[in-house]
């Protein structure tokens, strides 16, 4: 019987240059989804709390004071600690820096990128991770291709047009479950996705959890993503 993680790291230090002008005066996780009145990170903290997380460490960088001020004034559903990268450490280094502030180094933990807007069962993902005895598990999404696709037959005749079909490839959805041992494997400086993850994959200790059918997922990278997220939110039951 395994225990579900109760601690998490949110990586919230990115500059969000493709989201300008929204990010001229705030970090990307502080951008609001139109119509919700709450920044992305507020929705993430609510989701984590609903999934049993009691402690979150938020790694800040770009305009860290704006994020820290909001966290200090908001009514939050869990305990939040902030750490600030005073110099860029890379994704792996930033993750390790933040993980050092988790309340219990002997327990597993979740992590998520600060620009991910999603809802699915983290407990299911943690069970999947434990069943495979993985050191790290990545959530995997199948995003829609932003263009219309064309189908042809073997002779070259066009047979169909498909608007925004699902990608044939799974991608890293930016949500993770990590075993306690993973923290020590992270680089102090640099990108774990180029070092730690490939090594674990070769050793068959890296697992991939496909998001359940119908689970909502979107990375908020551009102004168009904000518009689409607001539209999708409005069309969802209870949204």
Structure in words:
By secondary structure, this protein is of the alpha/beta class. It has helices at 40-50, 64-73, 90-99, 122-131, 182-185, 196-202, 223-235, and strands at residues 7-12, 55-60, 79-84, 109-113, 116-119, 136-141, 149-152, 158-162, 171-178, 206-210, 216-219. The strands form three sheets. A seven-stranded mixed sheet has the order 3-2-1-4-9-6-10, sandwiched between helices. A two-stranded antiparallel sheet has the order 5-11. Strands 7-8 form a two-stranded antiparallel sheet. The chain is globular and about 60 Å long.
Overview features:
7-stranded mixed beta sheet; 11 strands; alpha/beta
Quick recap:
The chain has 239 residues and is an alpha/beta fold. The protein contains 7 helices and 11 strands.
Largest sheet: 7 strands, mixed
- Secondary structure: number of strands: 11
Q: Termini, distance in Å? A: 35 Å
- What is the alpha-carbon Rg in Å? 19 Å
Mean pLDDT: 86
Strand content: 15-25%
Spell the H/E element sequence.
EHEHEHEEHEEEEHHEEH
Q: What's the helix and strand layout?
A:
Elements lengths: L6 E6 L27 H11 L4 E6 L3 H10 L5 E6 L5 H10 L9 E5 L2 E4 L2 H10 L4 E6 L7 E4 L5 E5 L8 E8 L3 H4 L10 H7 L3 E5 L5 E4 L3 H13 L4
Parallel strand pairs: 1-2, 1-4, 2-3, 6-10
Antiparallel strand pairs: 4-9, 5-11, 6-9, 7-8
């Amino acid at each position: 019987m395994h225990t579900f993680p109760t601690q998490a790291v949110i990586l919230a230090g990115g500059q969000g240059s493709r989201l300008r002008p929204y990010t001229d005066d705030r970090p990307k996780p502080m951008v609001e989804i139109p119509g919700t009145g709450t920044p992305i990170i507020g929705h993430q903290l609510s989701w984590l709390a609903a999934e049993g997380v009691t402690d979150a460490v938020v790694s800040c960088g770009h305009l860290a004071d704006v994020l820290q001020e909001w966290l200090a004034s908001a009514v939050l559903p869990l305990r939040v600690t902030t750490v600030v990268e005073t110099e860029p450490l890379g994704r792996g280094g930033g993750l390790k820096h933040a993980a050092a502030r988790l309340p219990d180094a002997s327990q597993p933990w979740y992590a998520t990128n600060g620009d991910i807007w999603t809802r699915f069962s983290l407990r299911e993902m943690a069970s999947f991770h434990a069943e495979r005895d993985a050191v790290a598990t990545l959530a995997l999404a199948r995003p829609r291709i932003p263009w219309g696709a064309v189908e042809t037959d073997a002779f070259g005749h066009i047979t169909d047009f498909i608007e925004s079909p699902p990608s044939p490839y799974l991608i890293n959805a930016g949500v993770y479950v990590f075993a306690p041992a993973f923290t020590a494997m992270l680089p102090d400086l640099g990108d774990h996705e180029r070092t730690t993850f490939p090594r674990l994959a070769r050793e068959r200790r890296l697992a991939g959890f496909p998001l359940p059918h119908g689970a909502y997922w979107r990375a908020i990278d551009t102004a168009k993503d904000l518009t689409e997220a607001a539209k999708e939110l409005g069309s969802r039951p209870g949204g």
